[in-house]
Structure formats: structure tokens, C-alpha cells
Design a protein that fits this description.
alpha+beta, 31% strand, elongated
């Protein structure tokens, strides 16, 4: 999820899919640029018994840009506040542990122009630090790269050292 609107749409879709369920408890934690959107919803369960424990799992595992919906079909057995909390928390935890977690990093986009000889020298370095989006070959080689923001300075220093500053570098 990249936005609060996406999270809300996902929740709406699950509720439509399971409209015959008694409860579709949800929680999300979305980071959009420099702001955060977080919300949990008990969806008719006793206040604080279900949405909050689901949200606490996201928070404790430091999972952002994610939404969790736990769907419950009532089976006739009342669990009580503590039982509900444990059931929702354990279900959310189980789902998160089974899911594929993808780490996402802030990236910067760079353009590097250099000669053919230098491009061969730095290709392994580029592939170690960056994702090549575009490569153009003419009288020089041009790379458009995505580099993790926290590795940008280290990458630039190494590529300048390796090419003896025989390149043109610009941030896009």
C-alpha cells in the first residue's frame, strides 16, 4: 500500500467479499512522504477488543504501508474481551508471519555518463549499489540508476574513485 486511499479501498473490497461475515476488523499503518496515516476499526466488536490488537502487531513489528483485515464469522461461542483480543492478535500475527514482507527503501535517481572503458570498470559496482533503469550507448555510455538514498554518498565516492572522476554525474 502506498496511500491511505489504497488501504481504505482494500478494506472496502474485503468487506464486499465477506459481506456475510459478522465482523471485518481492520488496521493500517501508512507512511506517505513525511506524514503517517494509522487507523484501526473494531467493526462492531467491543471497543478496543479487536482493531487495536491487530494494529499493535503492525506497530510492534515496525510494518508500514500495510493493511490487515481479519474476517470473523460468529460461531455461537462468546469469547469475552480477552478472548477476542487474543484471537484477533494471534490471527493477525499468523497472517503477517505467513505473508511475504518486502523492504522498501527511499531511492534517488542518478544519471551517469562515462566512456566505454570506465563503464566496464564500474558495471559490478553499479549493479551492487543500484538498479539500472536505462542504458544508452553512443559515443559514451549513459546509465539512469536508482540508488538507495542511504547508500548514495558511499556509491558516489566509490564510483568517482574507481573512474578517477572520469564521469559526469547528476541527480535527476
Amino acid at each position: 500500500m502506498e496511500s491511505e486511499a489504497e488501504a481504505k479501498d482494500f478494506i472496502k473490497g474485503i468487506k464486499e467479499l465477506h459481506r456475510d461475515a459478522n465482523h471485518n476488523v481492520s488496521a493500517y499503518f501508512i507512511k506517505e512522504k513525511s506524514s503517517f496515516a494509522l487507523k484501526y476499526d473494531d467493526n462492531g466488536e467491543p471497543a478496543g477488543s479487536s482493531g487495536k490488537p491487530v494494529f499493535k502487531i503492525l506497530e510492534s513489528k515496525e510494518i508500514m504501508n500495510a493493511v490487515v483485515v481479519v474476517t470473523r464469522y460468529f460461531g455461537g461461542i462468546k469469547l469475552g474481551f480477552g478472548g477476542l483480543s487474543r484471537a484477533y492478535r494471534d490471527t493477525a500475527l499468523s497472517a503477517i508471519e505467513e505473508a511475504e514482507v518486502v523492504e522498501v527503501f527511499e531511492q534517488v535517481r542518478l544519471r551517469i555518463r562515462l566512456g566505454y572503458a570506465e563503464s566496464q570498470k564500474v558495471r559490478n559496482l553499479i549493479e551492487k549499489y543500484a538498479v539500472i533503469q536505462e542504458e544508452t550507448f553512443s559515443d559514451i555510455v549513459e546509465f539512469i540508476l536508482l540508488v538507495r538514498e542511504d547508500l548514495e554518498d558511499e556509491f558516489i565516492k566509490k564510483i568517482i574513485d574507481q573512474t578517477k572522476n572520469q564521469l559526469a554525474l547528476e541527480k535527476l
